Amino acid sequence: MSADVISLETVKIERDEGTTFIILNRPDKRNAMSPQLHMDMCEALDWAEEDEQTRVVVITGAGGNFCAGQDLKLYFRGNEDDPRKMARARRASHAWRWDKLSRFRKATIAMVPGYCFGGGFTPVIACDFAIAADDATFGLSEVNWGIIPGGLVAWAVTQAMSYRDAIYYSVTGDRFSGKEAAAMKFVNKSVPSDQLRDAVMELARKLEAKSPAAVRYTKEALRSVRHMTQEQALDYLDAKNDALKFMDPEKGREKAMKQFLDDKVFKPGLGEFKR
Ligand code: COA
To answer: Would you say the CB of residue 119 lies under 6 angstroms from ligand 1?
Structure first.
């Protein structure tokens, strides 16, 4: 049984069958991230991870923009005199933008319209996939107001961009478009803004149809092997495959082999098995 969506102050949740949109919802502030928004995003992701109907999560922003970065007034200035409040906001900010999102057990897509600045880069990078509008505007604007891309942004951009691009955009603060983001492989692709949702849903439906266990284990495997030696990776991947074989509640591997080898009703090279 799937629960109804939860209601939050600064984050909106919408369903489209097996895909759940988690929407930063402060459009008047270009979805700048306040401490409350960080707390709400933590709650939204925890809810979506447990929600049975949700197979794919799309992170996006309301009102035609993705996110204008940290809220300078509420996140920075508002917490200046209260180290405990600052620490709490920081923990929540890091928890959803990196820890929860990069380890999320279901497929995640960042859908980027309009502006995406500073701290807004981290969730784009933490998602498995990112699709932007051609005319989206990305900017590592921290340098423009005298700070560094902190809160893990500098680290995250070096994971997702070439080192040259990471340095260039971090130090100059120059903006780049969705089209340029796609050319440098910072996002998977960009499309005209009026086709953004359709392009995201096309990918989401494809992911919805896959075995949830295979999606989860594949994501976890890729994330982990990046930092291993070849020997460690070989051991780990063998163990991970065994774990999937025994833990998959759908027993997908057996079903798929039967459909291919015995029933001859499915070709793994051309699509997923019948679940
Ligand atoms: N923090 C706090 N408030 C922000 C904000 C941010 N990061 N980004 C936008 N806002 C607020 C503005 O203060 C304004 O509030 P107001 O209506 O109460 O005056 C509202 O959002 C709309 O912003 P505005 O600048 O009028 O919109 P715009 O469409 O002309 O420009 C931006 C949008 C995103 C280009 C511009 O707001 C901007 O440069 N924001 C800062 C982006 C940034 O450097 N982020 C990195 C932070 S780590």
So the answer is: yes
